[in-house]
Amino acid sequence: MSSSHRTPEVILLPKTFSTPADLDDIANHYKGLRLQGLLSDPNSFSSTFERESQFTLDIWRSRIQNPVAKTFVSVLDGNDKISSKTIGPDTTGSDHSKAKGFQNLPQTEWVGTVTLLGPEIWSRQDGDAISQTWDLFTKAKDVPQQALKPRDYSGAHVVYLIAGMFVLPHARRKGHGQQLVEAAVGHVRDEAKNLGAWNASIVLQASQAATSAQLFYEQVGFEAREESVMDSSPYTAMVRDVNLQMDE
Known about the structure:
This protein is an alpha+beta fold. The protein has helices spanning about 20-40, 50, 55-65, 135-140, 175-195, 210-220, and strands at about 10, 70-75, 85, 110-120, 155-165, 200-205, 225-230, 235-240.
C-alpha cells in the first residue's frame, strides 16, 4: 500500500529488527529527519547540523537502539491528515520490526519526531544538587545510553525528559506536534503505572531563542518553571505532570 493511502500514525520505533538492513533503513530515515530539523530550526536544538552531519551510521543506529530512549515518529499520508492511532512495539521481546505498522515504515514520509528519555526517580531528599525534577537530566553531561538497572519504582515519582522534538515546516499547524507529545505522555502514563509509580512528570528544556517552541509546549500542557543557562545557551525548564489516577 502506498504512503498516500496509508492511515497516518505516530509510531514508536522498534529496537530489534529482522535484518541489519532493516535497522539501517530506519536509522537513515531518522538521520534525514533529524538533519532537516537541525538545518531549518537550529535554535530549537542544543546540537548543530555541522556536528551531526559527520556522524557515522553506527551512531545513528545507536540512537535508535538506545535502551533508555523511546523515539516516536509522525507519518503523513497523501491527504495530509493525522489520526489518533499510535502504534508501538510489543513487550514480549519478539522481533518488533515484524509488527503490524512497521512493515511499510521505510516507504512512508516522516514529518516529525520526539524522543523520550527515562525514567529516573526523583526525591526531595536527593539534596541541593538535584533540587528540581529537571535537574535529573540537566545536571547530566551526556544522554544516557545504558539500560536502566533494575529498581523498585513502587510509590516513586518518576521523571522523563522530552528531547529532539521537531516537525517539518510543511507539516506544521496540522496537529502533528500535539499528537507526538500526547503519544509520549500516553507512554509515560502506561509505563509509570506498570512500574507502580505514584507520580510522573515530563520535563524539557526549551531554548529561549525559540519562542514559538515554548509557546507550543505551553499549549500542550507544559509549564515554565525556571530559566537557566547550559553551554552558554539560555533555556527555560518546563514541566508537565502526568495524572496516573485516570486515563486521559
